[in-house]
TrEMBL record:
<feature type="transmembrane region" description="Helical">
    <location>
        <begin position="272"/>
        <end position="290"/>
    </location>
</feature>
<feature type="transmembrane region" description="Helical">
    <location>
        <begin position="334"/>
        <end position="355"/>
    </location>
</feature>
<feature type="transmembrane region" description="Helical">
    <location>
        <begin position="131"/>
        <end position="157"/>
    </location>
</feature>
<dbReference type="InterPro" id="IPR036259">
    <property type="entry name" value="MFS_trans_sf"/>
</dbReference>
<protein>
    <submittedName>
        <fullName>MFS transporter</fullName>
    </submittedName>
</protein>
<keyword id="KW-1133">Transmembrane helix</keyword>
<keyword id="KW-0812">Transmembrane</keyword>
<feature type="transmembrane region" description="Helical">
    <location>
        <begin position="361"/>
        <end position="380"/>
    </location>
</feature>
<feature type="transmembrane region" description="Helical">
    <location>
        <begin position="218"/>
        <end position="237"/>
    </location>
</feature>
<feature type="transmembrane region" description="Helical">
    <location>
        <begin position="296"/>
        <end position="314"/>
    </location>
</feature>
<keyword id="KW-0472">Membrane</keyword>
<feature type="transmembrane region" description="Helical">
    <location>
        <begin position="69"/>
        <end position="88"/>
    </location>
</feature>
<feature type="transmembrane region" description="Helical">
    <location>
        <begin position="243"/>
        <end position="263"/>
    </location>
</feature>
<feature type="transmembrane region" description="Helical">
    <location>
        <begin position="94"/>
        <end position="111"/>
    </location>
</feature>
<feature type="transmembrane region" description="Helical">
    <location>
        <begin position="9"/>
        <end position="30"/>
    </location>
</feature>
<feature type="transmembrane region" description="Helical">
    <location>
        <begin position="42"/>
        <end position="62"/>
    </location>
</feature>
<feature type="transmembrane region" description="Helical">
    <location>
        <begin position="163"/>
        <end position="180"/>
    </location>
</feature>
Length: 411
């Protein structure tokens, strides 16, 4: 594994600490006031809406600056969010949630852009699988430790103590960003760049592999958002005791680590691992139609392991498809990928705003749509891989396509 990827693993350990805390305890902090699905959905909706624009803006800035600047903006935005959580509370709750969700979205968007663009340029196709597996392992360890330690701190010192602790982690993240590789797209970008629509017509629409790639991302956004949001809602529905939440989260993480051990022992191919993840996720989605507490816990166990299998395989397959393109071509495709995922995440959250209970027809409809999208992803990935040009065709086309592929969209 390259030195740049190893540095990203260290950065991931710090960032995951912050992201895991936000994913559980900021959502819980918002949920505890009125226990409304709407409040949590509103926070996540604004977060992902901002995330999409932040990712595109970060890719544009990379044509002038290095990823160090992107990571600095990410850390500063996260610091703003935790400062607001610590010192500001408005009478209008929706506006207050928006004030938290927007900087959190900027933090995620800039970090995700820096990571994805850097990773796609830093390692070989063979290294990507090792990187995503190692990153998944680090994430599981952090996911195991952070909730328990945060629950202890909140129990004895209140939420404010953990907000301050997250600010400390953000400062460390900011300092470590100066040690990251000076990766940018300055040498790759020409003065004249096509519009988003022009770039799409020249690069994506004429490439069958990228059309299936796009369909895969649209489908993935739906069930990724369903799984992420309702894993939290199911957990909060079981208990609001922070120690129990931490304990349940540890249980989900241990189940995922067992999945990791099985993956390493069996050495499954990407498509096999993706299929196994989809099967576990489908089972987890279906059993919540019996909304009793033990079943909700089992559902989260299945979807936690399923998401590890799905994420490791799907991300590896997607980055392998992007890898043959030039650096700026990779940037354009990653912006396109993130935009598609965020679009369907936002669409899903708009529907979730109308969900009032886990027994209603809207919730059942969401499960059906999520299952259809989940089952479609392996098919789309298979078609994308099948439609990829042969290696000799890619090398032969690289010079001729460089003008079209090297130009990221003007965002």
């Amino acid at each position: 594994m390259s030195g740049a990827l190893k540095k990203w693993l260290v950065m991931n350990m710090m960032s995951y600490t912050i992201f895991v805390y936000v994913g559980i305890f900021v959502n819980l902090f918002i949920w505890e006031k009125h226990r409304l699905i709407f409040d949590v959905a509103w926070f996540n909706l604004l977060m992902f809406f901002t995330w999409a624009f932040a990712f595109a803006a970060a890719a544009h800035l990379l044509s002038r600056f290095t990823i160090r600047v992107l990571l600095g903006i990410s850390a500063a935005s996260g610091g703003t969010a935790f400062a607001l959580l610590s010192f500001v509370e408005l009478d209008n709750r929706l506006v207050w949630i928006a004030c938290i969700g927007i900087p959190v979205g900027i933090m995620y968007g800039f970090f995700s852009a820096a990571q994805n663009l850097s990773v796609s340029m830093s390692g070989s196709s063979a290294e990507l699988g090792h990187y995503f597996t190692a990153a998944g392992s680090i994430q599981q360890v952090v996911t195991l430790a952070v909730p328990l330690l945060s629950a202890i701190a909140i129990h004895y010192f209140g939420y404010s103590s953990t907000f301050v602790l997250m600010l400390v982690f953000l400062v460390v993240m900011l300092l470590f960003s100066f040690a990251m590789p000076k990766i940018s797209l300055r040498a790759e970008i020409r003065e004249v760049r096509p519009s988003v629509l022009g770039w799409y017509r020249s690069v994506v629409s004429g490439n069958p592999s990228l059309r299936w790639f796009s369909a895969s991302n649209l489908a993935a956004g739906v069930f990724l958002q369903f799984q992420q949001l309702f894993l939290l809602i199911f957990t909060f529905s079981v208990t609001e005791n922070k120690f129990w939440i931490a304990g349940l989260n540890a249980l989900y993480t241990l189940a995922t680590l067992l999945g990791l051990l099985a993956y390493r022992k069996l050495r499954l191919q990407d498509h096999t691992l993706l299929g196994a993840g989809c099967l576990l996720l489908a089972c987890g989605f279906l059993i919540v139609l019996v909304p009793v507490k033990p079943v909700l816990i089992v559902s989260n166990l299945l979807t936690a392991v399923g998401m590890f299998c799905f994420g490791a395989a799907w991300n590896t397959m997607q980055f392998k498809l992007i890898k043959p393109y030039s650096k700026s071509g990779q940037a354009g495709l990653l912006v396109w990928r993130e935009t598609l995922i965020c679009v369907t995440r936002i669409a899903t959250l708009l529907i979730v705003l109308s969900v009032e209970s886990l027994r209603g027809p809207i919730f059942v409809g969401l499960i059906a749509i999520s299952l259809l999208c989940l089952c479609a992803v392996p098919y789309f990935e298979y078609r994308a891989k099948k439609a990829m040009p042969a290696p000799e065709e890619q090398s032969g086309q690289s010079a001729g396509n460089r003008a079209g592929r090297e130009e990221p969209a003007s965002l």
